Each structure stands twice: as C-alpha cells, then as structure tokens.
Amino acid sequence: MRKILVVTGTRAEYGLLYWTMKRIQEDNDLKLQLIVTGSHLCPEYGYTVEQIRQDGFVIDEEIDMLISSKSKSAIVKSMGIELIQMAQAFDRLKPDILLILGDRYETFIAATCAMMMNVPIAHMNGGESTEGAVDEQIRHAITKMAHIHFAGTEYYRERIIKMGEEPWRVFNVGQPGIENIVRMKLFTKDEILNELNIKPNNKLIFLITYHPVTLEVENTERQIDELLQAIKRFDANYIFTYPNADFGSKVIIEKISEFVSQSEDSYLFCNLGQKKYLSLLKHCDVVIGNSSSGIIETPIFKKPVVNIGERQKGRLRADNVIDCDYDEKSITDAINKALYDRDFKINLDKVNNVFGDGNTSERVVNILKNIELNKNLLRKRLAY
C-alpha cells in the first residue's frame, strides 16, 4: 500500500487539501499519513487541529513549532524547530510520497526534509505568483524541489514548465478551492447569519480578510489603519476573519479587535471553517482585503472583490476583481465601484471561472496511485 504523507500548517491550506485527503483516506490502494503543525496548534489562531480530528482524520504527528514574538527572527527560529521534528517524523513514518500545497514556510520545511531524504514531493498550486509576499520565493523554491506538480490552471502548468520542469511531471488538475464550492452544501443567508450570531438587518455585508504583506511588513500598521478608515465610510456589517500567522499578524489582530470593540455590527472570527467561510463568500455584498480566496473562489459566485495592494500581484484573476492601493481614498473608491458602478455590476454576470471544474481530488489521487516511483522520478533535470 502506497503511503501518502500530507503536511498542513494553516486552516486555509487544510481547507484546500480536505477533499484530496478524504479521497486518499477512502482509497484501498493508498494510506493517508498526516502531520499537523503551524497555527493549527496555536490557541491564538483557533487551535484548528480539533477541526481536523472532527473531520475524521487520524493525525500521525503534531509538530508544535510556533514561537510567539513580534521579532522578525521568530519565524526563522520556528522553522528551525520544525525542521528537526519533521526529520524525526519522516524517519518514523517512512512515506512513499509527500503531498503539500502552496507556499507557506511550514510547507517549505516539509519539502526540504523530503528532498534531503529522497522522498518524492507532489506539490499543489505551484506556478502561481504573489509578488508582494515572501510566499513568492517559497512557492517557486518548492517547485524546484518537487517531483510531481499539480497546477491549478493551464496557464500555471505552462509557467511551471517554463521554469525548467519536465512536462511529464506537470499536471493541470484545477484549483482545489473550486471543489469545496461544488461539493459542499452551503448555508443560506439566514442560516449563516444565525450560525454566526449576526443579527439580521438591511445593511450591506462586508467580508474582510487582510494578511501581512511580508515584503512590506514595516508598513503593516499604516495599511490596516487605512483599510479601517475606508470601511467606516459605509453603513455595513463588517465581518473580519483572522490573518495568517505571519510576522505582522499581531498588529492586524490588535487593530481589528479595537475596531470591533468600538463599532456596532462588527465581528471578528478566528476560524470559520470552510463551510461557514464559503457561505459568507456566497452571501456577502463585497469581499475586501488581500486573500487568495478573493481571487480564486469568488468568480463562481459572481462576487465583487476589492483587492488591496501588492500581496496578490501576479496571480491570474477574473474581471470581478478591482485592484486598489493601500490608501483610504483608493480603497473607498474601489468599494464604491464594487457596490454602485452600473457597468461593473452588469459585467459581473459575465465573469468566467478559469480555475477548474471541481474534480481536483480525483485527478490528484489517480496520479498519486499510478505514477511510477523510480530513479527517473527522483532525478530531476532542467528541461529548457
């Protein structure tokens, strides 16, 4: 039986891996192994390891590695702690393939261990671009380590090949976030408001997620202040979700918490889970911030998105996304366009979803089952 080791470090990444993990778990020819690390084990970010257990997954190893500090070196020290424990876990589990997704530093450490211990790496969501974050370098570094590539679109597949990866290794499987929407029965608007104890009213619903822009982290406080000033211009229900556990996130959480404490109809959620979050995406009036979900999942809902700043720069996007700068006026103008611009709203109905048909997990598992594990897979070469 082929052992597939999945490593997850954040709630968002786990949500994208969920259906693939389920399909591996149910396959008679595969054995799912699972390492949970990062913010999953941090009470400050919702201790989401419990959600993974509730979903029916057996966790083989928990790697507690996050150092809580406002110092830039805290993340690097956390990575060092993770590296030692991850190597020990690999020794014990002896996986046949490592399956990872995205561009997080927790994922980078898992890939490093696998590369040095001759374990084939299967990487989901490579070939994308987020120029405003250190994730950009991490993602492409993992691509050069990886032996099997699961791209989210044909455009990203072609980009991976242009990076020198052999075409036979690279597969367009679609974005896993679309599968969540296709396969999940979402809440109605009344149901999701009731689930979150949000009192119903006739106000607009703003869904807001703002992550640190890790290449501009010294500007984080100013950026979140400008965002909060902009949204105050509108009479709305402000629904905030937590940022990632990156350097700068504590400032964002503190600022939003203060805003929520002083503003009626404001709500801050540490962890919503996939069903509640996607239900909010479906029923809100506008998505605001710099999260990848605003780029990838929203086109299927024909939902307007105000994308702030550089974090998602370079990522393929549909015409429902309005890009703006970090300042209050630019954000305000973008929100007004999203809500009230007649031509923009008419064109929303014509927005195309370019991110796949929702069958990602089936494609991924079929490849994991059938690809030959041999020297040819492990020996990489530049295919210029």
CATH topology of the largest domain: Rossmann fold
User: Which structural category do the helix and sheet elements fall into?
Assistant: alpha/beta
- The number of distinct β-strands equals 13
Helix content: 40-55%
Mean pLDDT over the full residue set? 95
What would you call the shape? Answer: globular
- Unreliable segments of 5+ consecutive residues: none
Structural Rg: 20 Å
Secondary-structure map:
Layout: E1 2-8, H1 11-26, E2 30-37, H2 49-54, E3 61-63, H3 73-93, E4 97-101, H4 105-116, E5 121-124, H5 135-145, E6 148-151, H6 154-162, E7 170-172, H7 176-183, H8 189-195, E8 204-209, H9 220-231, E9 236-241, H10 249-262, E10 266-269, H11 273-283, E11 286-289, H12 293-296, E12 305-308, E13 321-324, H13 328-340, H14 342-348, H15 360-370, H16 375-378
Parallel strand pairs: 1-2, 1-4, 2-3, 4-5, 5-6, 6-7, 8-9, 8-11, 9-10, 11-12, 12-13
Helix pairs in contact: 1-7, 1-15, 3-4, 4-5, 9-10, 9-13
What do these coordinates show?
This protein starts with a strand and ends in a 6-residue tail after the last helix. The protein has 2 domains: 2-174 and 359-378, Glycogen Phosphorylase B (Rossmann fold), CATH 3.40.50.2000; 189-348, Glycogen Phosphorylase B (Rossmann fold). The longest helix has 21 residues, at 73-93. The chain is 43% helix and 16% strand. It is globular, with a radius of gyration of 20 Å. It has helices at 11-26, 49-54, 73-93, 105-116, 135-145, 154-162, 176-183, 189-195, 220-231, 249-262, 273-283, 293-296, 328-340, 342-348, 360-370, 375-378; strands spanning 2-8, 30-37, 61-63, 97-101, 121-124, 148-151, 170-172, 204-209, 236-241, 266-269, 286-289, 305-308, 321-324. α1 packs across α7 (176-183), α1 packs across α15 (360-370) and α3 crosses α4.
